[in-house]
Amino acid sequence: MKHIPILLLTVVLSNFTPHLQAQNFSDKVAAAKLILLAAGYDIADTYYGNYAQDQYVYKYKKMYQGVDYAVMIISENGVYDADVYLTRGGSTVKSNTESRDEGATYIEYTPWLTSTYKIEAHNEDSYSYYSYQVAIIVGYQ
């Protein structure tokens, strides 16, 4: 399987989002990893952080030319809208900024150049200005 069909993963995420909202954070992260594994990805890394509304959490990841990557952002309950950005050299190469995603979003990317990329998770909107847990999950195939 070269890529997760975008429509399929969108349907899976939208169908599972209400269920993910009912779970605690660690269960949501485990469910997201299962989705990636079921789509044929191996889990490369999982990074954890905290962000309040309108804040970012970022990590750097070396990605290799020709390898397919999927990046999922999973937020603690209370985050209504999370965005993900993948940048290289200050330029955005891929993003997902759909609104009202209940704190779960993803992108897929196949680098044409081996390089270190910056993965940014953004808490666009949340219930309060409380600091929420977030996981950045990186899969590859």
Commentary on this structure:
The protein is of the alpha+beta class and 141 residues long. The protein has a single domain, classed as Jelly Rolls, CATH 2.60.120. It has helices at residues 6-22, 25-38, and strands at residues 42-51, 56-63, 69-75, 79-88, 91-96, 104-109, 115-126, 132-140. The chain has a four-stranded antiparallel β-sheet with strand order 1-8-3-6, with helices on one face. Helix 1 packs antiparallel against helix 2 (25-38). The N and C termini lie close together (8 Å). The mean pLDDT is 88.
Number of domains: 1
Q: Which stretches are low in confidence, meaning pLDDT under 50 for 5 or more residues running? A: none
- For the residues shown, what is the average pLDDT? 88
Q: What is the SS-derived class?
A: alpha+beta
Major β-sheet strand ordering: 1-8-3-6
Largest sheet: 4 strands, antiparallel
User: How far do the termini sit from each other?
Assistant: 8 Å
Helicity, as a percent range: 10-25%
Count of extended strands: 8
Give the helix tally: 2
The CATH topology is given as Jelly Rolls
- Rg (C-alpha, Å): 14 Å
Portion in strands = over 45%
Which key terms come to mind for this protein?
141 residues, alpha+beta, Jelly Rolls, 4-stranded antiparallel beta sheet, 2 helices
